[in-house]
Structures are given as structure tokens and as C-alpha cells.
């Protein structure tokens, strides 16, 4: 969240309202800082400034790899092709409140401070709610944003990725979380190097009720399957990108999922009774919890959903981008007619999704199956295995984990 610019006009400074300006300003700035500390926006989105009405980002295919050449041979020319594009724009957000002259004359600052706090909290809360709504638009479960007057704004385009449904440059944009992402120049011809699709939306069904003693093992296995899939994501020409997620975003209200998740991530071992199996996820991930995700379809407790993010790839590939055009600007002035102290605030920002490869969605509750790749956890049940023995070389039967 960008910081606020607070402008107190001279007419307010030289009036009876002057004494109230600094306390209001101080409390507003403090609350903005508090929202910044727990904001989901810099965790998921690459934060960027913007100084024009509209910006277009167009990617290109990667260069060809190096080749073996003979002595004195001219180096081969690497070809670059035009790839997908994404257009960034921002939306304007505004609000205001006023304090009467009588209230100020009677020194009722304590009664008005809560209004100032609610005012700035409304800005921070709306910003977080909107960011989570954009995540829903990327999933396809949220298509509109409802304004204060009840009218709706279509945000479905925000959730469309950079690539297209048919692989052409000018085709219909693909849903960001989807299991059929195609390279630019996609070909359905067998043997063609661009005949492939990729997924960044996955689902499975795990039991988080506390009755599955191996839930952490299964969760770790599913995690590794998604990580391994992201590691071999291909660019348009088929070159491996090596995406490596290190951030997990989860609904703060999903207690059962979080309990299993933290137990899985904090254990060095990945087999029963802390055996020799090493937990490949140990010490890798940073977990961020967002309470606002609970209001988004696809992130309810029953969904048990998470988002995995590679922050470095997100910045490089323009995965999820947040554009701040105008930071929160708060203006305080005195009206000519009523002599009320008016506080107005305005900001311009928006978020957009682009390249799918830095971010993946994983539903562990088995509820989000549309256009998603099914995953199955490997069986880790402990079973008794009889081992043949002889008098000369006795071997004792024991319970052996079957993987």
C-alpha cells in the first residue's frame, strides 16, 4: 500500500480547525502503516508505479540456445518472436467526510477521531477486499465489484491472463488460473515443438477433520507435485523456465488446513515416526494469512485452497501486477458556506494478471474442479509385509511402510 499525501489548506491552518488537523493526520498515517504491514497486495502482486493513463506490456519469445560452431564460423543468429501482451489501466477511488463548525468550536475532538479512523480504515479495508476480489476474478469465481451505491463494475477482465485460449496473439484471453495454457503460436500438430498445454490450477481431496493420521505426508506429496510441475514450466519455444515457488497464501480462517500446513512445513522429516524420509518443503516457504480471502468463492473453509507464488519470477515475468497511478491523497479544507471542515481522499490503482507461470492455485478440498488438473497423493499406509527366512539366516517380520 502506498503512503498517503495529506494536504491541509491554509484556510484550515489559520482557523479554529487548526488544532484538530495534526491529531487527525497522525492517526490516519498510523493506520495506513498498520494496513501496509498486513497487506496481501505486496505478497501476491509485483508493486509498480504508473504515470500514464494506460500501459501495454508485450512479451517476446526467448532466444534460441547456444550452438556448437567450428573455428572461425559466424555465430548463428538467434530469433525472437512477438508473444502475448497485457494492458494496464487504473481505477479511481474516492471518499470524504466533514466535521461541523460547532463540533470544532465545542472541542469535541475525541468524538470525531473515530470517524477519521473509520475513514482511513475504510480505505485500507477496501483496498484489501478489492485485491482479494481480483484473486477471485483470476479464479473465475468473482466477476463484479459492487460500489457503495449498489451498482457493479465488471472486473472479470482483470482475471484474464496474458495468453489466449487458442494460442494466437489476438485471441480471447485465457482465465488466469486454468489447466490449458497454450504457448504463443500453439500448434495441435503432433511433433510440433509448440504442441503443449500447461496448468496452474490443481485440485485434490484431502481429509482435514483430524481422522487421517497421514494428512501431513499426503499434503507434502501434493505440494511436491505442484512444485515439480511449476519447476518445468515451458516458455513459448519450449525452454524450461525453472519456476520456484517460495510463498504460500492461505485463508486465515481455514484453521484445519493451517494446522496441517504448519506441521508439514515445520517437520524436517517426511515419513512415519520421523524416519529417514526428508521433508523437501522444510524451510522453503513463507506463509501469509489473509482474513479477507474468506469472503471469496474458491477460498472458503470447505475449499481448503492455497496460492503458491514465486516472487522473483512474478517480478520478471509480470505474473500479478499492481499499478499505483496516484497514491492516497487526502485534502482538508474549510467550506465557504457552512465553514465545516471537509476531508476528502482520492487514489488511483488497480491490479491485473499476466503470465501464469509464477503463480499457481491449489484446492485441497476437492471443490474447485473446473478447468483444473487432478492430483492424487501417493499411498503411505503402513502395512505388514512377510519376509521369507531360513534357519541359517533368520529375518524377523516387521511393519514396513509401503509407498
Task: Please outline what is shown here.
The protein has 403 residues and is α/β, with parallel strands linked by helices. Helix content is 25%, strand content 27%.
Can you offer a commentary on this structure?
- With 403 residues, the protein is α/β, with parallel strands linked by helices.
- It has one domain (5-62, 83-401).
- It contains 8 helices and 19 strands.
- The chain has helices spanning 10-13, 18-37, 41-44, 101-105, 109-139, 215-231, 255-266, 311-317; strands at residues 5-8, 46-49, 54-60, 82-89, 91-99, 144-146, 152-154, 160-164, 173-175, 201-203, 247-251, 286-290, 305-309, 320-334, 341-353, 359-363, 373-374, 382-385, 398-401.
- Strands 12-11-13-16-10-17 form a 6-stranded mixed beta sheet, with no helix packed on it.
- A hairpin with a 5-residue loop joins strand 6 (144-146) and strand 7.
- The longest helix has 31 residues, at 109-139.
- The radius of gyration is 27 Å and the shape is globular.
- The two termini are 47 Å apart.
* Main sheet: strands, sense, barrel: 6 strands, mixed
Outline the low-pLDDT stretches. Answer: 272-276, 382-391, 395-403
Helicity range: 10-25%
* Mean of all residue-level pLDDT scores: 81
Note the gap between the termini. 47 Å
List how many beta strands DSSP finds: 19
Proportion of residues in β-strands: 25-35%
Report the principal-axis shape: globular
**How many individual domains?**
1
* Radius of gyration from CA coordinates: 27 Å
Strand order of the largest sheet: 12-11-13-16-10-17
Could you give the order of the helices and strands?
EHHHEEEEHHEEEEEHEHEEHEEEEEE
Structural class: alpha/beta
Amino acid at each position: 500500500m502506498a503512503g498517503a499525501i495529506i494536504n491541509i489548506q491554509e484556510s484550515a491552518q489559520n482557523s479554529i480547525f487548526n488544532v484538530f488537523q495534526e491529531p487527525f493526520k497522525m492517526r490516519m498515517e498510523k493506520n495506513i502503516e498498520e494496513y501496509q504491514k498486513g497487506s496481501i497486495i505486496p505478497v501476491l502482486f509485483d508493486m509498480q508505479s504508473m504515470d500514464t493513463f494506460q500501459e501495454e506490456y508485450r512479451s517476446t519469445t526467448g532466444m534460441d540456445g547456444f550452438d556448437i560452431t567450428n573455428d572461425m564460423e559466424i555465430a548463428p543468429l538467434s530469433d525472437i518472436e512477438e508473444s502475448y501482451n497485457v494492458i494496464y489501466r487504473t481505477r479511481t477511488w474516492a471518499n470524504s467526510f466533514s466535521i461541523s463548525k460547532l463540533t470544532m468550536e465545542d472541542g469535541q475532538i475525541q468524538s470525531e477521531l473515530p470517524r477519521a479512523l473509520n475513514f482511513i480504515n475504510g480505505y485500507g479495508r477496501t483496498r484489501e477486499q478489492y485485491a482479494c476480489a481480483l484473486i477471485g476474478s483470476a479464479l473465475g469465481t468473482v466477476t463484479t465489484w459492487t460500489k457503495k451505491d449498489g451498482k457493479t463494475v465488471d472486473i472479470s477482465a482483470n482475471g484474464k491472463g496474458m495468453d489466449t485460449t487458442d494460442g494466437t496473439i489476438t485471441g480471447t484471453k485465457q482465465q488466469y488460473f486454468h489447466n490449458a495454457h497454450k504457448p504463443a503460436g500453439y500448434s495441435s500438430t503432433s511433433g510440433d515443438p509448440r504442441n503443449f498445454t500447461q496448468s496452474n490450477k490443481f485440485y485434490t481431496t484431502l481429509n482435514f477433520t483430524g481422522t487421517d493420521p497421514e494428512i501431513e505426508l499426503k499434503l507434502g506429496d501434493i505440494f511436491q507435485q505442484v512444485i515439480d510441475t511449476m519447476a518445468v514450466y515451458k516458455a513459448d519455444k519450449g525452454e524450461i523456465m525453472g519456476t520456484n515457488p517460495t510463498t504460500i497464501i492461505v485463508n486465515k480462517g481455514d484453521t484445519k488446513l493451517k494446522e496441517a500446513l504448519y506441521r508439514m512445513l515445520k517437520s524436517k522429516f517426511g515419513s512415519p515416526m520421523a524416519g529417514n524420509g526428508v521433508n523437501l518443503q522444510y524451510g522453503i516457504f513463507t506463509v501469509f494469512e489473509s482474513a479477507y480471502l474468506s469472503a471469496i468463492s474458491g477460498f472458503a473453509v470447505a475449499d481448503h485452497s492455497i496460492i503458491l507464488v514465486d516472487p522473483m519470477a512474478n517480478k520478471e515475468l509480470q505474473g500479478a501486477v499492481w499499478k499505483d497511478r496516484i497514491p492516497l491523497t487526502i485534502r482538508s479544507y474549510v467550506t465557504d458556506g457552512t465553514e465545516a471542515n471537509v476531508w476528502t481522499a482520492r487514489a488511483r490503482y488497480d491490479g491485473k494478471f499476466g503470465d501464469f507461470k509464477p503463480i499457481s492455485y491449489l484446492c485441497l478440498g476437492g471443490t474447485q474442479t473446473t478447468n483444473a488438473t487432478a492430483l492424487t497423493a501417493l499411498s503411505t499406509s503402513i502395512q505388514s509385509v512377510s519376509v521369507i527366512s531360513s534357519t541359517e539366516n533368520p529375518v524377523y517380520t516387521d511393519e514396513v511402510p509401503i509407498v
